[in-house]
Write a sequence for this structure.
């Protein structure tokens, strides 16, 4: 078992061998581990014989029932062995998420029903009705906000930005725990049950990811295969697809949406995971509805009944294009509004301080405002206030024309459709009011600190906008545009579908909302209008604003690399040499321990470059900070000090015994005579046993403090008068000043790197790599830093931070900073290929004229080469 | 202009700076170039004033018309400036491809109509009918095969395997030329017009790619932005989507299918290109049909009319699952059969030799066989032989139940539907015969050397299989499965849709065929059955056989990296050190020209590693073979020889003039006295002018021969007696033996690398990188080789070839070669992290004990370190 653990540790180290953090690793180690386990199982048969024994016993004692039990046990073993397979995990994930989704939908529907029932039961008194209408959501939202705040504040909001960051390879603490899961599920149920314009899609992506993470941990009880970061990230990507898939019963759209929203580069060979899990999940989700007798069979969530023969006329396409373009502007405006609200709330210090004190006041106030405005007998009558989000969508996707036909008698949703027909107003005004009010309401509501998404509200607004255009078209061309013999009327419901896809696509910057609407409505007849509108909406929105998720990432300052948008040509002229950090701390192969100490004190970098020598600066690899610390603390460790002491004593006593350990044992335990030389290491044991016991008081401070102790002992010895317990113990043999001398002497020794683990191939860039390419490489390989080298010589370093600054710098100051200050010193046409050859020539010259200057030279002439690139 | 060209060359060099071939570069340089061009336009305004001048003149002379012209010119300038934008390119590509697709469809339909007409017109005589039925396709196929063979043999086959390889970054010659385009378009039209079971999808991917490539070249006349490989590959990826999109009018499915089929890693930010172009193309393609009055409006290609309310019962799902699993086996069988036919034809030497002589015989024979069997009055009556592929699909997707209802009267395709109802047989037998016959016919027909795909034939077979299951289900449950009040009958057409998606998904190993069928049929109501069947079919097929495209790649031995399939755990235990080439040729920084010559003679590698010295082996970069050749030929160039001669002459004459050029001019042209020293380079001109003129006879052999010349002059001088013209010319000053001496002397000089272009950051791996990770990195970055280093020291090299061998080795000998021979020498658990530290310790020891051994030591003790890793 110990060797297995060691092997695993070695493997995990090997995983980071190549790059600092290589997220796209695609389960290499999961599979390595699986192969290893399989081999072990094949070779050793260590664990399997044991469970078989009781069954064999049973066969002798019980007779008839035994074969069944043997069979059952074999089945069980088979299942346990198969638990390691991906598809078992994906099926479990799909199943759990479908159940969660269905249960939540059921709970939300019950909540909404309860509100309707309360509202309907109190129809004798408007005041009471109002109180019931307003209090119910306020209580729910406040509870949701409070509950989330107390249990896990990480559950607040959509979760897609965080998932995007996590999938990028950044570890966000507490975002995938059971606590957050519970907070998110319960908080989201309450928030949606309140009837506020909030969505469940984003949170579901987060919930599915948490579910996958928890499931991994649970299944890892059956074997070590799940304890692997690369594999987990792979599974998280599949989980995101499941989240969208089981939320909308849209497996294809779910996979595509999750890819577009969370990934930068997508491994096609992981495609099937998402499809498999999302399909299974959507299937179970819909089957549950059938079993619950909600539906007769498996159909779409918001089934439409548009005619198939002639879905739309060619001449209607301009109208669809208009919807697309308008949605693009609308989407950008929504993102802008949402961000401004958040920033306003943050900037207003007085408001902020007040709200921070009473954390639940802001959600309550917002809910009060929104629910007051939607109160059906009040202003709500002009904006179909009594409809739930689901009812709204159903009515908007209706295939009748409202303006002309009025409420159709044969229509089954008669009751809810009436909401759009105010007796003193017409459908157009209701729709316009609905769109305008819902727009700011949704932008405001999504800033409430509860688990909530913005996809569904935006989707509904888009549908309403599409419906508005469709109704206008229907009013304009009452008999359809086509002038041929058989005239087909315009279907405003089709416009609603197009609008929904376009606006949600614009807000999230995705094209796959098109697929989602097809799967949601169960009809694909409007594919071309939808595609045209979505692409136009994306083109407009992407040129105006970041996506909602990127906007939140920026607001929350999550460690994510911004995307390079379209047409930001100015920053393709930036090169790595313009943004890299030149003044980096490094470790040389022939350095002294004192240098290590200086480096550790002067930098906070997690890994340090190891160069051959300060003169040559040839990059040999990178060494982790912890390793450097360990080296240093080992060098200054009390054990070595004791050994040194003992050696000194030996030298003083004039004894000539070669083994220091034996000598030490003699001097401390004062045993008479020389012990047997046959086992020279063994007698050391008692002495060593004593030293750790004396050290046992200090280690509880943590393993990371190892260096700290050593350094403290170094500095404190001269400044502080009172000796620590440790020093007391060792003080018997060495005085503080002696220790200081000894440590100074130790620090002057050259470093022995033989015990340190070194990453021999940290990722390297060259000075002329463009910002664009650097961005590509960083996002492709999930790096967080890279060294900049020039023919093997380390000249700088670029980390995620510099890269983000460079991209954002040219993003915000668009048009002003066409080239960064540093770039202007460079003649872009003439010197493109030259510096490499210059540097090479220098290296070559060095070889030619003074053949061995590396160790011999004082480093003065070579040192000047480094800032040459400027 | 010269400096611009230089800058561009420099940029193109810079592009390969980072890795040998970095395909995923995402248009960095296109954009760089765009920014540069914009800057130039902004700064210089070099080209714009000129076209304006005539318009300004016009304004003075003509008056009224002038503003229009100014306006038109400005529009033109605007358009030209916008031509550089991606979307212009994508729109043009979509437009052209839609036109091509539509025109081809029209031509194919005409061809098929002609056959029908001939067959119908000769109904008095069966013999004549047979002759017409058989001759027509034979002539067309033979013409297609001959035409393709003569014009461009690269046009043969699907083209998807080649596109996959090209997108991987490998340059395949002649695959994207105008000739191939013409051959493919005309050949494909004839092949499909013959009515053979061939498809147009795969070839369309190829055609679209060629179209994109040609369009790039055409548009590059307007500016330099299109002359960039990375950008071209990006555009080719979009073109693949366009190909599928405009072939099936399926934009979403097209994008997804092309991603699945051609990519390994997909950049999400390129997503929109595909969507945009494919949507536009599909739109135009369908609009053309509307304008041609084929359709009333834009609808799906194979529109179905299944009921929306109750598309299928929950209890029908097992039947769909059965279709999926059976399709999986069928798909694997199809790929196997196809490969076996090809291999059989290749192995049978006698057949092969005979067929090779008469290249057109094989296509003619196959066509004769297939068309004889489908002859409607003959055997064809049992397999609906008279139906074209399109008619077959339309009838298979029909929403009536054939078995029970017989031919429905109200059905509009009355005529063609009758084909399935043989008077002396029943539908089931017809379907079974159809499936069995078409199966081997399609597998055989796709091996004919004409441009053809296999997607459509497989799709049709799948549909027929689905229909068969559906009809069986309908016969089994005549009133539907559901036992409730309102019973819904089973829709066999839905089964046909599921079967088509499943079988084509199994053959191509894609999930996106699901989306393609939705777009093809215009209905998405069967989404869950389709998804379930496609996933099951993929699971089965992928575990049995490679995809059809991968199979062709393997048959054609294209330079493509095979995918790692599911569950091949055994090869994750292989490491780079097991597969790398250890004995590689390298160039050292302090080497002599003679060494370069040896290296060039001993290896064929396109790029050579440059190491610091043979002892240290520290990798400094890689240098291209051509660069090494250029260095060598420059060193041995006649010019330098002349200079040397002249210097020698100088030395002999005792003159002390410093400038060699001047001296030379004096000695050859015998001008009296010393010329002015102010312009020392100028007088050299006449002499230089003469030398190229004498060399002008030899260069036509090609620029790659530069080294060849130099080397030839070196070797030939001693062996061949007759002096070449060049030597004759120079022989006046130097005798052959003198030249030999001089060259020997030159070869002993150390190399001056200052003029060579060196890639300072070739991609590096470490010895312990697993095969799986290596595969990932290679496919992610599109590498074709990587150096294996150990702390900066070059220890080996891995190229695509080794990697492919390693993967295929463990793929073919599954279960036998669990670990490769080399791996068995390694203790996998114990030595995981050790060798790095060992190597490091050696390096460190070297520093400790003999501080400067690199140049000083004879290299004996360090040289032994290199094969240490074994």
């Amino acid at each position: 078992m110990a060797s297995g653990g060691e092997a695993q540790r070695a493997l995990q180290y090997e995983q980071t061998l190549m790059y600092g953090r290589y997220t796209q690793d695609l389960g290499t180690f999961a599979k390595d581990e699986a192969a290893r386990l399989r081999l072990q199982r094949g070779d050793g048969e260590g664990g399997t014989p044991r469970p078989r024994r009781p069954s064999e016993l049973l066969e002798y004692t019980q007779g008839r029932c035994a074969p069944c039990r043997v069979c059952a046990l074999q089945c069980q073993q088979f299942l346990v062995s198969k638990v390691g397979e991906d598809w078992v995990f994906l099926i479990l994930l799909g199943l759990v998420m479908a159940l969660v989704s269905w249960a939540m939908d059921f709970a939300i529907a019950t909540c909404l029903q309860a509100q309707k029932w309360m509202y309907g039961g109190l129809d004798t008194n408007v005041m009471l009705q109002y109180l019931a209408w307003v209090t119910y959501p306020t209580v729910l939202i406040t509870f949701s906000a409070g509950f989330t705040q107390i249990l896990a504040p990480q559950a607040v909001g959509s979760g897609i930005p965080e998932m995007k960051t996590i999938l990028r390879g950044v570890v966000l603490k507490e975002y995938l725990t059971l606590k957050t899961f519970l907070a998110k599920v319960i908080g989201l149920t309450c928030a949606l049950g309140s009837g506020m314009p909030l969505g469940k899609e984003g949170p579901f992506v987060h919930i599915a990811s948490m579910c996958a993470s928890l499931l991994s941990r649970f299944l890892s009880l059956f074997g070590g295969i799940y304890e692997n970061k690369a594999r987990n990230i792979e599974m998280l990507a599949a989980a995101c697809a499941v989240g969208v898939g089981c939320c909308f019963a849209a497996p294809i759209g779910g996979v595509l949406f999750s890819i577009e929203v969370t990934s930068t580069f997508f491994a096609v060979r992981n495609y099937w995971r998402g499809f498999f899990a999302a399909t299974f999940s959507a299937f179970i989700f819909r089957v549950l509805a059938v079993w619950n007798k909600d539906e007769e069979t498996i159909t779409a969530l918001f089934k439409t009944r548009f005619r198939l023969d002639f879905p739309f006329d060619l001449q209607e396409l301009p109208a669809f294009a208009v919807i697309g373009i308008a949605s693009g502007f609308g989407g950008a405006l929504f993102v802008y509004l949402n961000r401004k609200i958040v920033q306003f709330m943050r900037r207003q210090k007085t408001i902020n301080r007040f709200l921070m004190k009473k954390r639940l006041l802001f959600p309550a106030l917002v809910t009060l405002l929104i629910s007051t405005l939607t109160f059906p007998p009040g202003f709500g009558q002009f904006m179909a206030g009594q409809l739930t989000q689901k009812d709204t969508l159903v009515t908007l996707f209706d295939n009748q024309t409202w303006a002309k036909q009025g409420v159709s008698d044969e229509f089954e949703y008669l009751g809810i459709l009436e909401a759009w027909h105010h007796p003193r107003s017409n459908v157009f005004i209701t729709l316009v009011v609905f769109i305008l009010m819902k727009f700011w309401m949704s932008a405001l509501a999504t800033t409430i600190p509860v688990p909530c998404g913005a996809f569904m509200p935006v989707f509904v607004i888009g549908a309403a906008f599409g419906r508005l255009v469709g109704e206008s078209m229907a009013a304009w061309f009452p008999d359809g545009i086509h002038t041929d013999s058989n005239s087909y009327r315009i279907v405003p419901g089709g416009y609603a579908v197009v609008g929904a896809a376009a606006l949600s696509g614009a807000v999230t910057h995705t094209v796959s909302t098109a697929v989602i609407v097809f799967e949601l409505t169960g009809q694909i007849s409007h594919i071309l209008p939808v595609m045209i509108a979505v692409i136009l909406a994306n083109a407009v929105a992407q040129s105006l604003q970041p996506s909602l998720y990127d906007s939140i990432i920026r607001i929350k300052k999550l460690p994510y690399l911004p995307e390079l948008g379209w047409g930001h040509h100015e920053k393709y002229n930036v090169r790595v040499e313009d943004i890299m950090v030149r003044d980096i701390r490094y470790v040389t192969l022939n350095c002294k321990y004192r240098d290590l100490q200086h480096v550790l004190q002067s930098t906070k970098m997690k890994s340090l470059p190891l160069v051959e020598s300060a003169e040559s600066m040839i990059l040999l690899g990178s060494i982790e900070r912890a390793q450097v610390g360990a080296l240093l603390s080992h060098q200054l460790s009390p054990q070595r000090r004791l050994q040194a002491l003992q050696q000194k004593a030996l030298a003083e006593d004039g004894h000539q015994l070669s083994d220091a350990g034996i000598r030490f044992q003699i001097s401390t335990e004062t045993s008479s005579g020389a012990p047997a030389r046959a086992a020279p290491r063994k007698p050391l044991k008692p002495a060593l046993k004593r030293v750790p016991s004396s050290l046992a008081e200090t280690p509880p401070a943590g393993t990371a403090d190892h260096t700290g102790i050593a350094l403290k002992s170094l500095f404190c010895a001269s400044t502080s008068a009172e000796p620590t317990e440790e020093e007391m113990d060792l003080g018997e043999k060495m005085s503080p000043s002696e220790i200081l001398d000894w440590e100074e002497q130790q620090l002057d020794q050259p470093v022995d790197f033989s015990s340190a683990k070194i990453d021999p191939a940290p990722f390297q860039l060259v000075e002329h790599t463009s910002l664009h390419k650097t961005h590509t490489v960083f996002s492709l390989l999930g790096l967080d830093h890279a060294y900049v080298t020039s023919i093997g010589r380390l000249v700088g370093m670029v980390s995620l931070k510099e890269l983000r600054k460079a991209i954002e710098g040219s993003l915000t100051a668009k048009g002003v900073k066409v080239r960064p200050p540093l770039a202007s010193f460079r003649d872009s046409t003439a010197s493109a290929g030259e510096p490499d050859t210059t540097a090479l020539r220098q290296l070559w010259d060095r070889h030619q004229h003074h053949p061995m200057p590396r160790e011999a030279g004082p480093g003065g002439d070579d040192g000047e080469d480094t800032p040459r690139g400027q």
